[in-house]
Inverse folding.
């Protein structure tokens, strides 16, 4: 059997548990108070540290120049060397840090602010009077950067004054001087327009070089004429295009005539060359036939001479020793194939087959000494 016992420090009178706080609850109560107190002290110290840090250090962004101004102490005034990105020691009350942008800045001169970049400074479009007395509104983007922040700060001022007192007062006059040399129609001439835009950039740089600002690009985005001038320009352009079209068609006709003449000359030359080739072939064939006939005639002559010589040699051979016997043999060959021959056996011309000398005499066979065979 398990009986309930009273644990010292946890039980009270009457044997009931948890009626009074024990040692563990006391420890939690004391240390919980200490923990909350240390947290409060840490938070207070952190706030004091941050306040002191912020009053003693200033952060310069990566796209900024830092310009330190010493108000109290040695080297009072604006420090010539700019500070780069990061935290810099700037005690409050003794020094201050001003910033200027390091990256490319954009000034938009435009009649349509909705087309400009949200990061750009926007003013009205440049109102240019052309050299022929008309007016045109030009949308221009001026891209520039701060080259010497100390010079900008000391000659123009802090903050955004480099825009209000630096680039803006100089932009439109430089554009008017450079683009005012163009006529109304010259704005449609891209190379000439770009050339005058470059002239405007050079004028701006000459105006701003002693203030530490450099203009990188001057870009014309659009230009606006009055409707009447626009209609006149378009009408003149159409007439010019018609003139150019007629000139181009005339040149095309001349070129086509030249082409036809060249083709005809080429065809004639080809025909002449073909005729020359055919004549050459005919001449070579005639030469070949002549050569063949000459060689064939020579060969025939040689054959005929050889045949005549053979006949001559044969005749000579037949007239030599034994020729009479050959004649007799040939005559005897005439008798081949005869089954019956009737010859007289008596009289002067009688034939006695047993009389061999008579037969030889009859066949005119001679002896080896040239006489008759006995």
């Amino acid at each position: 059997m398990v009986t309930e016992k009273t644990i010292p420090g946890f039980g009270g009178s009457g044997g009931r548990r948890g009626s009074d706080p024990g040692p563990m609850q006391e420890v939690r109560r004391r240390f919980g108070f200490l923990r909350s107190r240390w947290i409060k002290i840490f938070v207070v110290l952190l706030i004091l540290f941050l306040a002191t840090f912020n009053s003693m250090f200033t952060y310069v962004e990566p796209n900024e120049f830092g310009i330190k101004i010493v108000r109290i102490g040695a080297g009072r005034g604006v420090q010539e060397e700019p500070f780069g990105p990061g935290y810099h020691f700037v005690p409050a009350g003794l020094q201050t840090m001003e910033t200027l942008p390091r990256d490319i800045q954009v000034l938009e001169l435009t009649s349509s602010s909705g087309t400009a970049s949200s990061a750009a400074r926007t003013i009205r479009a440049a109102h240019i009077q052309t050299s022929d007395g008309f007016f045109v509104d030009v949308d221009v983007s001026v891209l520039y950067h701060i080259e010497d922040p100390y010079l900008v700060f000391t000659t123009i001022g802090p903050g955004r004054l480099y825009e209000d007192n630096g680039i803006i007062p100089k932009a439109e006059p430089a554009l008017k001087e450079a683009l005012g040399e163009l006529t109304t129609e010259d704005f449609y001439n891209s190379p000439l327009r770009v050339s005058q835009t470059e002239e405007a950039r050079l004028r701006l740089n000459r105006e701003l070089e002693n203030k530490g600002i450099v203009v990188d690009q001057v870009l014309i985005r659009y230009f606006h004429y009055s409707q009447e001038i626009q209609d006149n320009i378009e009408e003149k352009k159409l007439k010019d295009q018609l003139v150019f079209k007629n000139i181009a068609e005339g040149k095309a006709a001349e070129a086509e005539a030249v082409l036809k003449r060249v083709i005809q000359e080429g065809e004639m030359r080809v025909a002449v060359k073909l005729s020359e080739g055919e004549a050459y072939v005919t001449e070579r064939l005639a030469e070949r036939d002549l050569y063949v006939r000459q060689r064939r005639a020579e060969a025939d002559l040689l054959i005929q001479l050889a045949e005549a010589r053979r006949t001559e040699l044969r005749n000579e051979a037949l007239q030599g020793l034994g020729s009479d016997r050959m004649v007799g043999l040939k005559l005897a060959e005439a008798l081949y194939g005869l089954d019956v021959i009737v010859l007289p056996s008596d009289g002067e011309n009688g034939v006695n087959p047993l009389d061999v000398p008579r037969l030889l005499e009859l066949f005119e066979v001679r002896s080896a000494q040239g006489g008759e065979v006995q």
Remarks:
- The longest helix spans residues 227-318.
- The chain has four domains: 26-99, 105-225, 242-319, 323-362.
- Residues 1-19 have pLDDT under 50 and may be disordered.
